[in-house]
Design brief:
two-stranded antiparallel sheet, globular
Length: about 120
């Protein structure tokens, strides 16, 4: 059992499967990092662009609603401005799931032992 736990832990860090706790995106492969930003507004701009790109594929009409998406973006800006993470997930048409997360770190306030990704150019 202990060996299997070690195997699962090693596999987790090498895959893009979303973690249960947003902070653990920080242990994922660097290829999972889509960008780094200094300011919450910059990160939220990226998040809004992702939502715009994927919204037509959301399985739920409610998730595609522009007012709902605006509220999610506004909420993410507030959370990031307070130093918290923002994490969203949506089922897409076809059996797919979209996980979007913006993780704060410098270091991360609830998991300071987790390393921040290298800043991308």
């Amino acid at each position: 059992m202990v060996q299997r736990c070690r195997e699962v832990a090693a596999e987790f860090a090498a895959t893009e499967i979303p973690p249960l706790e947003t902070a653990y995106w920080l242990v994922k492969p660097r290829s999972s990092v889509r960008g780094t930003w200094e300011e919450p507004k910059e990160a939220v701009t990226w998040l809004a662009e992702q939502l715009d790109d994927y919204a037509p594929r959301f399985a739920s009409e409610w998730d595609r609603d522009a007012t709902h998406l605006t509220l999610l973006i506004d909420s993410a800006l507030v959370r990031l401005s307070l130093g918290a993470d923002a994490s969203l997930g949506f089922y897409l048409e076809r059996p797919s799931y979209l996980s979007l997360a913006v993780v704060t770190c410098s270091p991360h306030r609830s998991r300071p032992n987790l390393p921040c990704p290298v800043r991308q150019s």
